[in-house]
Design goal:
Layout: H1 2-35, E1 52-60, E2 63-65, E3 70-72, E4 77-85, E5 103-109, E6 112-114, E7 119-124, E8 127-136, E9 143-148, H2 153-156, E10 163-173, E11 183-189, E12 192-198, E13 203-214, E14 219-230, E15 233-234, E16 241-245, E17 258-259, E18 262-263, E19 267-269, E20 274-278, E21 287-294, H3 297-300, E22 306-315, E23 321-331, E24 336-342, E25 357-364, E26 371-377, E27 385-393, E28 403-404, E29 412-418, E30 422-429, E31 439-444, E32 447-449, E33 458-459, E34 463-468, E35 472-479, E36 484-491, E37 501-508, E38 532-534, E39 536-538, E40 547-555, E41 558-567, E42 575-583, H4 586-589, E43 594-605, E44 608-620, E45 624-629, E46 645-646, H5 649-652, E47 662-666
Amino acid sequence: MMRFCKRNEVRDMVKRKRQLLMTWIMALVMIENVFLPFNIVHAADISASVLTDLTATVTQDGATIPEGGSITSTKPIRVEISFGVPVEGDDPTPANPVQKGDTVTFDLSSAFTLLSGDTIELKMGTLLVGHATFTTEPITNMVTATVTFDGDDSVFDGTSNTVTCQFGANFEYGDSGAAGSAGNHTVTILEKSYTVNVPVLPIEYEMTKTGTANLADRSITWAVYGSATQGVADVDLSGYQFFDDLTSVGDYVENSFKVGPDPVAPTWDGTTKELSYTFPSGSTSPQEITFKTRISDEAYYATSEQKVNNKAQLLDSESAAVDEGQDEVKFTPKWIEKKGVSSDEGSTGVYDPKNRTIRWTITANQMKANLKEVVITDVLPSGLTLNSASWQAWDGSAWDTATAIIPNASGEYAIHDINSMILLTIVTNVPDDTYTTGIKTYSNSASIRWEGLTGPGLGTGSIDVGIGYNAITKSGVADTSNQKIRWTVNVDTKGQNISNLKVYDLLVYGNNIDLSTVTGIPDGITATDLTPRYGQKYAGNFSGSFTVKVIPIMQGTTRVADLLEITGLSTTKLNTFSFDSQVVDPDIFAGNTTSTVRNTATLFSANAKLNAATGSVNYTNSMLLKGMLKRGAISDPAAGVNTGLTSNAQEGFDYQDKSVIFRLNVNGDGLDLTDKI
């Protein structure tokens, strides 16, 4: 009995523990219901059939494309989806209302790629219903829109009803692979069929042309590059024609036409000057054509820059031009040029007026043409005599050994046949002088001719070379405040023994003088050897270790000029002296402008004129000046008459009283004008 009772006690204890566990579970469930919202249920992927009034619209360029309609592949489309969302608040309550967190998926199309954003909001007015997210499956290219109903609680807790929303996205046709071939392609958008039309791609043409002149063989090589592409594919140019009108270019050089590296035979009409070539089958672009044209006589034998323009065309099978390329080739034929250098060029120290020469160099056939029976003509000017002559050929890097050559009585040098550049050097003797005080200029020219060249030949034109030097120079500096000019004269005989050197300088007070009617000019001096300079008189201030004599030049009893005679000059060193002249012409010192004032010093040996030198200065006077003051000077114009000057109109204009203050400066150089004007 006692063992039986113990078994019952154990059984009761187990039963009480089970009841206590169930009580705790019920309590936890009740607590969870207290703290969590009543409308939370497990989110689910729902079928689009749950939605109401589901519609999808496809538009392109703003026009709706009906099911089975045609879509242009080159323009984007827009897909719009709208639907109603059954919710708890609808009346009557739907059997399967959409719960917050539910999702629905739309397979849009695998034939298009997405252009717009990945995620967009779905709203009904200001009420957020959910979000639509777009993804593209990488293998199938299917664009999917997943709508997640994660909007405001009021949409799903029975507060809202008649919920609708819509969304859309922009797409472009995926034309990769076979989908990009021209023609019609059937596609599916939201399980509806449409036709996408892929138009035939246009053919893009490109044609360029370049030219290079080769004067050695008298030709221009033209290179023409032509291509045609359709999309990324190169087009066969079969049936297309290359065309070039060479009327203003030059004749086609036979057997020079190539397509790529291969010589071919084009069609050349020597009468119309038209060159053409029709591409055969298999001429897949790009294609390059090269050929030569002959440079015309007019351009080839010119001595200035020449320009040759050429335009090539690509014609289709109906001879219509589809593209063109052109180029301008510039070249300057160099047949002959001449230079000359005197033997005394750059000489210093004692000058030797004897044994002087001029070395003439004539460079010919710079174009390295193949010329027969070449003759260069060079007739020496009067006074020069031939010392020696030689010629050399260019071997590509240097002049080869000189060969002596003697001209005939007509000054013609027979070179014979050449195919390279040549150099003819002629050394001439200059007449000896007792002494030299100036520069003697010799002018000379040369020409070239060869077998087959018509006319007298191609020439260099006149080339001038001076020999000697100027033994006297003159310069000046204006001093307008004192109405003077400081003149400086240099005399240098460079060690030549010239007897009785002296300088004369004639300053005339007025604006003209008749030297044949005046007195005072020294005996033995020819009046016309002197150069009068006007509007000046001698003002003294002579500097230099020489003797200066001021000789009055008289017109009757009136003194009209000063003739300066400077003597005691050295023949072994540089002689320099300076003096002042007074500007007495009121048009110069008070004319309120800039004038050029000149003065000439003439070098003599005893009574023989050797040379003369003229100096000039710009003489600017400020007799009347007008300036503008800054507007701040209105309170005291006199105080700002110098510091307040401005040339800026914005600083000078007074915007309040619309005025400007001007400053007038009379006799700005501060000259003493008593009895001078």
